[in-house]
Amino acid sequence: MGDRGRIDYDVLVIGAGFAGLHMLSELKKAGFRCHAYETGSGVGGTWYWNRYPGARCDIESVDYCFLHDRTLHRDWVWSERFAAQPEILRYAEHFADRAGLLPLITFETRVVAADFDALGGVWSVRTEHGDTVRTRFLVTAVGCMSAAHTPEIPGISRFRGERFHTGRWPHEPVDLAGKRVGIIGTGSSGIQVLPEIAEQAAEVVVFQRTPNFSVPAGNRPLTEAEQAAEPAKYDERVALASTTRFGHVVPGTGKPILDTGHGTRLAVLEDRWALGGTSIVAAFTDTGRDLEANALLADFVRDKIRATVTDPETAEQLVPKGYPIGTKRLCVSDGYFATFNRDHVRLVDLRAEPIEEVTADGVRTTGETFPLDVLVFATGYDAFTGALTRMNITGRDGVSLTRQWEKGPKSYLGLAVAGFPNLFTIAGPGSTMVLSNMLRAIEHHVGWIRDLLVTLRSADLLTAEAEADSQEDWACQVAAAASRTLYHHTDSYYSGANIDGKARVFMPYSGGLDVYRRICDSVAADGYRGFSLS
Ligand code: N01
After folding, report:
1. Which of 2, 40, 49, 175 lies deepest, with the highest CB count within 10 Å?
2. Phi, psi (5° rounding) for residue 45?
3. Pocket perturbation via mutation, ligand 1, pick of 164, 498, 499 by most ligand atoms within 8 A of CB
4. Strands 203-208 and 180-184, how do they pair?
5. pLDDT tens string 20-63
6. Percent of the chain with pLDDT over 70
7. For position 12, what pLDDT does the model report?
8. Mutate to test the pocket of ligand 1, among 164, 327, 329, 349 (most ligand atoms within 8 A of CB)
9. Ligand 1 atom having least distance to the Cα of 493
10. Atom 1, ligand 1: residue with shortest CA distance
11. Given pLDDT bands bounded at 50, 70 and 90, which one contains residue 4?
12. Is 280 in contact with 251 (CB distance < 8 Å)?
């Protein structure tokens, strides 16, 4: 029988961010032999890697935390309305510690290949250190935004200064005092990091390709009264997790903006602007699905940018045009636009003067050369699929996942892939992913996968595989849900448009976490309809 008969684990988890930690914890409680591999030297995933100055969540702390455990919720007290990276990382560490997970995780170990052995019905998983383990089930918890993307700009390797990607920020403090810093990219990361870098650096040049909509966070410390009131809100939050589109409540007027008079409309939007956070996009019911309605909201935000940035030319370059607000991830940052009023901060519009090359000493555009000591790449991720397709996963008959997804990823419910038995993908493409509160989505996916594994074990079954027809049907549902939104009006990482050569397919399920949960529940209640179990 040799190696074929060896099975090291019932379930191997890849990744020790929130998804991997919660999965591991549930598997441990359910009595499975389980283990996790993690590339980093600690837990936390996104919040382990994104240590750039200003990194902070854009969902309120009291919503961006686990709810499956009342005691955990009661005992953890958040300090700010929107928690900063170090506090969220501490929360992840606290979670891992409390659940006794550290002995179950091998750190600094990247998985470099996973092959399904159809004869044994077992996954063979190889690490960067050359070890191979065999596991009955494999669960990926590798994150939607973990495969950092640095564009191939000519000359990039010649740069003699320091180079950082926001998603791979060093653990040691980076001293930017007196330095000339270039930031490439103006998505959520670029927009968050700029005000902080501008505080330290002597000069900052922001290289912007697409202007982005950004709203103030309105961050502040939570009051003692707010902190004390939180445990009593637990039951309500749990209820909202399954009955709302995002997994938490984003209160709105319940009215269409198009049916709202100018004065009231303005008053509501001003109120939301002052409140801060993304609630402005939920203020009215039609701004996410009707272009005319969306334009009213977008114009409000454009006017705010013009009113904030004192140089009219810079302001106009910063104003997003040509795509609806909310169809790229809405950015949240206190002080982003105002930072351009500082004398040592300059905007370069790459649409007018594209980058020609990175030189040894800076960046040369078609218009000018910018001497720089530090280059910050806030250029995003090969989102949703990159971490999976970079891992060399092969399923039944040696079919490669990367090859299978060449024309765009297809999955069943975002949780499983036909041809890849016993592989489960937490927050995989086709799930609600970043279009909902990630922690709510993770709790749902983990619970659902755990229940399926327990069901298999109870029935003495060894294999679950998504059926190709169910997968096709789900891909149609993902596309149909997107077609009812405004997302398809915009090129973004949601559809793979940020990576050269990547298939253009809208990847997240945009029908809402509440609807998604009901679908997954009905699949389970129906004996895991769409899976073949054996
Ligand atoms: O990445 P992005 P991100 N030359 O892909 C530009 C989450 N997150 O790291 O738009 C010049 O959004 C690119 O330009 P364009 C959140 O889900 C959350 O900022 O493609 N520029 C864009 O401006 C977020 O959505 C928080 O034209 C180039 C930028 O780089 C997601 O992570 C904080 C370029 C990339 O923006 C990703 O955000 C941070 C090139 N060759 C992240 N290539 C919170 O607030 C790319 N760009 C919780």
Report:
1. 49
2. 55, -125
3. 498
4. parallel
5. 999 999 999 999 999 999 999 999 999 999 999 999 999 999 99
6. 99
7. 98
8. 329
9. 5
10. 380
11. low
12. no
The identity of residue 259, as a single letter, is D
Give the pocket of ligand 1 (CB within 6 Å): 57-58, 145, 151, 166, 184-190, 192, 207, 209-210, 329, 332, 350, 378-381, 434, 493, 498
236-240, 244-248, 311-315 — most confident range: 311-315
pLDDT, residue 3, reads: 63
3-state secondary structure of 381: strand
Q: Which atom of ligand 1 is nearest to the CA of 167?
A: 9
pLDDT value of position 1: 39
For ligand 1, atom 29, the nearest C-alpha belongs to 185
What token pair was written down for 382? 């090969």
Assigned token pair, 152: 């191939």
Amino acid at 209: R
Q: Please tell me the distance between residue 387's alpha carbon and the centre of ligand 1 in angstroms.
A: 16
| Distance from Cα 50 to the centre of ligand 1, integer Å | 13
Least confident window among 154-158, 246-250, 524-528 = 246-250
Q: Are 138 and 124 in contact (CB under 8 A)?
A: no
For 109-127, how does the pLDDT look when each residue is reduced to its tens digit (9 = 90+)? 999 999 999 999 999 999 9
Structure tokens at 351: 């649409």
**In order of start, what are the domains of the chain with their CATH numbers?**
9-147+382-533 (3.50.50.60)
Distance from residue 165's CA to the centre of ligand 1 (Å): 11
Q: Which atom of ligand 1 is nearest to the CA of 332?
A: 45
Rounded to the nearest angstrom, the distance between the alpha carbon of 379 and the centre of ligand 1 is 5
What is the 411 CA–ligand 1 centroid distance (Å)?
25
Host H or E run for residue 393: strand 393-394
Q: How far apart are alpha carbons 178 and 37 in whole angstroms?
A: 40
Q: Concatenated DSSP letters for 236-283?
A: HHHHHHHHSSSSS-----SS-GGGS-HHHHHHHHHHHHHH-SGGGGGS
On the CB side of 393, CA atoms within 13 Å amount to 26
Spell out the SS3 assignment of 108-137: CCCEEEEEEECCCCEEEEEECCCCEEEEEE
Per-residue confidence (pLDDT) for residue 5, from 0 to 100: 74
Query: Is the per-residue pLDDT at 81 higher than 70?
Result: yes
Tokens in use for 472?
């096709």
Q: Which atom of ligand 1 is nearest to the CA of 191?
A: 19
All residues at 6 or more sequence positions from 363 whose CB lies less than 8 Å from its CB, including other chains: 182, 184, 205, 207, 355, 357, 369, 370, 372, 375
Amino acid at residue number 111: V
Nearest CA residue ID for atom 10, ligand 1: 210
Tokens of 111: 């998985």
- Spacing, Cα 189 to ligand 1 middle (Å): 6
d(CA 237, CA 228): 15
Q: How remote is the CA of residue 343 from the centroid of ligand 1, in Å?
A: 25
